[in-house]
Amino acid sequence: MPRTALVTGAGSGIGQTCAELLQSQGYEVIGVDLHGADIDADLRDPASIKAMVDAVEQHHTSIDALVANAGVSTSSPLDLEVNYYGAIDSITALLPLLQRSASPRVAITASAASLQRTDAELVDTLLHGTREEALDYGAKLQQAGKAAGYGNYSASKRAVVTWMRQVAITEAFAGHGIAINAVAPGVVKTPMTEQLLATKEGAEMAFGAMPAPLNGAAEPSAIAAVLAFLVSEANASMTGQVLYVDGGFDCSTPQGRGADIWHDPKHLDA
What we know:
This protein is α/β, with parallel strands linked by helices.
């Protein structure tokens, strides 16, 4: 029987490309997005997530792969709602279906922004506080201006990969054979970045903040290929890992962590 994969944010960009790639590899793919996918769902809304799971369960007793890809970049609390809460809530809701698979896999689309300067207090609030506290904090950052507001995005990505590493070795995941990993793209050519990369000034700003010495901005297919591997049966032993598919940003100094991530990690929190 073919493996079944559910891809969130499947309507465009990396999610659409990943869904098409998995389909070409023989998967039965269930696409989820706000509008126009196999299942329409708003991942900010727990009731909508429940309805998504109910819709999947009408035709499937299990799923083999979950690509938690849906994401936004708005420098507002919406980033927290979709990139963090939407990801972990949908993964958690689909966990029973994954646990019934013989070879279950989860891959999250994070971001190289998880390495950028961010607000450590917001990250901690996401991981340990209430949703209301985190969204209130994020709203204050947005009100403080564009630079501070960007902390919503970078914190959402830092927090979701931290959560992923925390749960990877638990009974709910490792104990049921579920490998969970993340891909962290750098600058990618998607509808989200199209306008930014269309001008010389925009491209200089993008690569000034996130250099990509290897081939510049990535095509969505480059990210989709890594996501497809992570949710495949070929990924038999890797879990809790963040793969920076970023054209070399992570290796950069001073923007990334540089060459030595063992003895002299950079302190990136503001």
